[in-house]
């Protein structure tokens, strides 16, 4: 059973920084992607940033240049360094682990979510 445990959310002022962490445990197929999605009230869940098991990254346009995703592959942990935070970054942030087994549909595991609030 795969579990994702997130940490690092909170309340921060605009322009400040915050780092989210997500540790995955269990049996994890080697071909995967880990990353972050977010959902603000009244909005759909949207991609923030992902990184594959070979280091390929993908960012939402709204966070490019401000957020950086990284992974510690030995620890099955993904991080999201968020700089110059804006009020519109306020959302529940969810960690995602996508398993990619050749010949089968991708399967996603989700963390419980961590609240990030950007407000003065």
Plain-language structure description:
The protein has 120 residues and is mainly β. 0% of the residues lie in helices and 53% in strands. The protein has no helices and eleven strands. It has strands at residues 3-7, 10-12, 18-25, 32-39, 46-52, 57-59, 67-72, 77-82, 91-99, 107-110, 114-118. It starts with a strand and ends with a strand.
In short:
The protein is 0% helix and 53% strand. The protein is mostly beta strands and 120 residues long.
What would you call the shape?
elongated
Major sheet characteristics: 7 strands, mixed
The residue-averaged pLDDT reads: 95
Helix content: under 10%
Distance between the termini: 40 Å
Q: Which stretches of 5+ consecutive residues score pLDDT under 50? A: none
Secondary-structure element pattern, one letter each: EEEEEEEEEEE
Query: Tally the helices: what do you get?
Result: 0
Instruction: Report the radius of gyration as a whole number of Å.
Output: 14 Å
Structural class: mainly beta
What is the number of strand segments? 11
Query: How much of the polypeptide forms β-strand, as a percent range?
Result: over 45%
